[in-house]
């Protein structure tokens, strides 16, 4: 067996180890969450003015398992990021390890921040609008399955969008993104943000603004972070290319 083949096998073994750690963490968190799933279910539904219906006895189990799985997945995010970082760590310099290590808690905070923004800001706006739209016309009855599908659609996209600053920082650090390019394409980014915000929020001006402004702020923060990373990368490359005078 050649040395190259041995290196590939070592990498595959290391990857398998990281995946097993992630799956184990997810399973343990899932079990822990499921123990308190009725309390968690009550917390998610405490603001509703009507009880949630189920269409069959198995729906109860499916809903509990789905809710526990989603929460466990969210809580496993820092473990996933940590294992990815540990996998690529040998290829990083000491300085890169220190910088990228900050991505681990930051990614979790941004992920939770996106979930919180979707759940506490966007979801109530959309839900109240839809319920008021049907008042007097339809007999409204919410099933637990449809309600939690709605919750996921109103929260998960924001948890992903809120990771934008970290993604931009990473792309800048590897040379795939520059702050100048982001500034040049700002109007297109703003247009995309407005379109996404209008699609997922109720059709009224206030709701649209409440969604658009945070996403635009995230984009502007990403530009500033990209500029910092870009300057540091240029400085590092300049130092590496400067000949040492003996």
Automatic annotation (TrEMBL):
<keyword id="KW-1133">Transmembrane helix</keyword>
<dbReference type="GO" id="GO:0065002">
    <property type="term" value="P:intracellular protein transmembrane transport"/>
</dbReference>
<keyword id="KW-0472">Membrane</keyword>
<comment type="subunit">
    <text>Forms a complex with TatA.</text>
</comment>
<keyword id="KW-0813">Transport</keyword>
<dbReference type="Pfam" id="PF00902">
    <property type="entry name" value="TatC"/>
</dbReference>
<keyword id="KW-1003">Cell membrane</keyword>
<dbReference type="GO" id="GO:0043953">
    <property type="term" value="P:protein transport by the Tat complex"/>
</dbReference>
<keyword id="KW-0812">Transmembrane</keyword>
<feature type="transmembrane region" description="Helical">
    <location>
        <begin position="61"/>
        <end position="88"/>
    </location>
</feature>
<feature type="transmembrane region" description="Helical">
    <location>
        <begin position="188"/>
        <end position="206"/>
    </location>
</feature>
<feature type="transmembrane region" description="Helical">
    <location>
        <begin position="212"/>
        <end position="230"/>
    </location>
</feature>
<protein>
    <recommendedName>
        <fullName>Sec-independent protein translocase protein TatC</fullName>
    </recommendedName>
</protein>
<comment type="function">
    <text>Part of the twin-arginine translocation (Tat) system that transports large folded proteins containing a characteristic twin-arginine motif in their signal peptide across membranes.</text>
</comment>
<dbReference type="GO" id="GO:0033281">
    <property type="term" value="C:TAT protein transport complex"/>
</dbReference>
<comment type="similarity">
    <text>Belongs to the TatC family.</text>
</comment>
<feature type="transmembrane region" description="Helical">
    <location>
        <begin position="150"/>
        <end position="176"/>
    </location>
</feature>
<keyword id="KW-0653">Protein transport</keyword>
<dbReference type="GO" id="GO:0009977">
    <property type="term" value="F:proton motive force dependent protein transmembrane transporter activity"/>
</dbReference>
<dbReference type="InterPro" id="IPR002033">
    <property type="entry name" value="TatC"/>
</dbReference>
<feature type="transmembrane region" description="Helical">
    <location>
        <begin position="20"/>
        <end position="41"/>
    </location>
</feature>
<feature type="transmembrane region" description="Helical">
    <location>
        <begin position="100"/>
        <end position="130"/>
    </location>
</feature>
<keyword id="KW-0811">Translocation</keyword>
